[in-house]
Amino acid sequence: MINLYGLEIKKLEKLMVEEGQKPYRATQLYTWIYEKKATNFDEMSDISLKFRNVLKEKYCLDLPTVSYVQNSADGTIKLLLKMKDGMQVETVLMRYNYGCAACVSSQVGCNIGCSFCSSGLLGKKRDLLVEEMVGQILVLNDILSKEGRGERVSHVVVMGTGEPFDNYDNVMDFIRIINNQKGLSIGARHITVSTSGIVEGIKKYAREGLQTNLAISLHASNDEKRTKLMKINKVYPLKDLMEAVKEYEQIAQRRVTYEYLLIQGVNDTLEDARELVELIKDTKGYVNLIPYNETNLNDYKRSSNNRVHAFLDYLTKNHITSTIRKEFGSDIDAACGQLKAKVENKT
Ligand code: SAH
Ligand code: SF4
Q1: Tens of pLDDT along 116-144?
Q2: Residues carrying an active site annotation
Q3: Which of 89, 108, 114 has the most ligand 2 atoms within 8 A of CB, as the residue to mutate?
Q4: Measured between alpha carbons, how far is 268 from 260 in angstroms, rounded to an integer?
Q5: Are the CB atoms for 112 and 196 separated by under 8 Å?
Q6: Region 262-290 average pLDDT
């Protein structure tokens, strides 16, 4: 069975032509599943019964199922979703004043193995399929529509579990589906992919002709410190990473966001801030400072508020546009991978 939610429009058009149909069938199907929210083929009244039967034989509209929900007082919703093979991933909905942002996972587990991240602890189990990423948004939209406040997912960050550029093709198809006007119609500028710094991925992404955003998980400004936090830095050291960022800026004509976790005593001194300015000052990117979310899986501690603000002030004084990431769901298992770890340890 082919899952319709996994098909980027060009691929669906090709399949329809192979079925002896006109390419516009693809748009018609998109309208049914994404706009009219049909969940089975019988609803598709303007498609002949005969072709509906063909569709039913070969295609399905399966979504992941919700196995655990956490609701935070601030409106954040954290889901544990179960895929067909029983594997589970986390998806989070964050409510901003400008809309609802979904934090989507791209893999079950992660092979990059950053020392501070609970998603990486057990390694990668598998890549997520396109339909499993689209499914994360559809399940959230369904919950929002049942809440009846007229909300829907308006922003997407591929910042859940997994390294998106280690599942490159599926992530690109996912982006094209959610961005398509007949798909979920989420504006390109409302879509962000976050990478640990896979250089080939950054270069390829620069050439996709997308107006989507790119975030780089930097977290340290010299190779020694960065390698301790992110062993991927051995493969793609800062020199290569920064070259790739500059190439991206040139080719895509977009600026990146640098994500920088602040961990007490590890990367949060003013000397670290000075090095960061040196490292990125020739690029146009801005910095998103992330106070570390402590987990019981390692000894890293969050930097004090004073440290965080001193770091921010230093960057700002040195003409680097910077913000401190707003925190969500601090009363639930907020850190990446924590909910899955908790639920799966219990069972
Ligand atoms: N693999 C990609 C995208 C997923 S991780 C990447 O690394 O960019 C998304 C972000 O969550 C990364 O910036 C990562 O550093 C951050 N993160 C991981 N564990 C965290 C924690 N305990 N507290 C705060 N941020 C964390
Ligand atoms: Fe993987 Fe990103 Fe976690 Fe690193 S921070 S282990 S790349 S999910």
Answers
A1: 998 878 799 999 999 999 999 999 999 99
A2: 90, 336
A3: 114
A4: 10
A5: yes
A6: 97
Residues contacting residue 244 through CB under 8 Å, at least 6 positions apart: 197, 199, 202, 203, 236
Is the pLDDT assigned to residue 333 strictly greater than 90?
A: no
The rounded distance, in Å, linking the Cα atoms of 197 and 238 is 9
With contact defined as beta carbons under 8 Å apart, do 197 and 230 qualify?
A: yes
Q: Compute the distance between CA of residue 136 and CA of residue 89 in angstroms, rounded to an integer.
A: 9
Position in ligand 2 atom list of the atom nearest CA 162: 8
pLDDT in tens, 102-120: 999 999 999 999 999 988 7
> How far lies 124's CA from each of 78, 143, 185, in Å?
21, 28, 30
Q: Which amino acid is at 60?
A: C
Compute how many other C-beta atoms are within 10 angstroms of the C-beta atom of residue 58. 11
Measured CA to CA, the distance from residue 262 to residue 265 in angstroms comes to 9
Output the pLDDT for position 338.
66
With 0.90 as the threshold, say if the pTM is over it: yes
Q: Which of 200, 195, 184 is nearest to 33 (CA)?
A: 184
Ligand 2 centroid to Cα of residue 198, in Å, is 12
Strands in the chain per DSSP E: 2-3, 59-60, 65-71, 77-82, 88-96, 99-103, 107-108, 126-127, 153-158, 191-195, 213-217, 257-262, 286-291, 322-324
Q: Cα separation of 216 and 164, whole Å?
A: 12
d(CA 88, CA 309) in angstroms, rounded, equals 37
* Ligand 1 nearest atom to the CA of residue 338, by list position: 22
Specify whether the backbone of 268 is left (phi greater than 0), alpha (psi in -120 to 50) or beta.
Answer: alpha
The upper half-sphere exposure of residue 116, i.e. CA atoms within 13 Å in the direction of its Cβ, equals 27
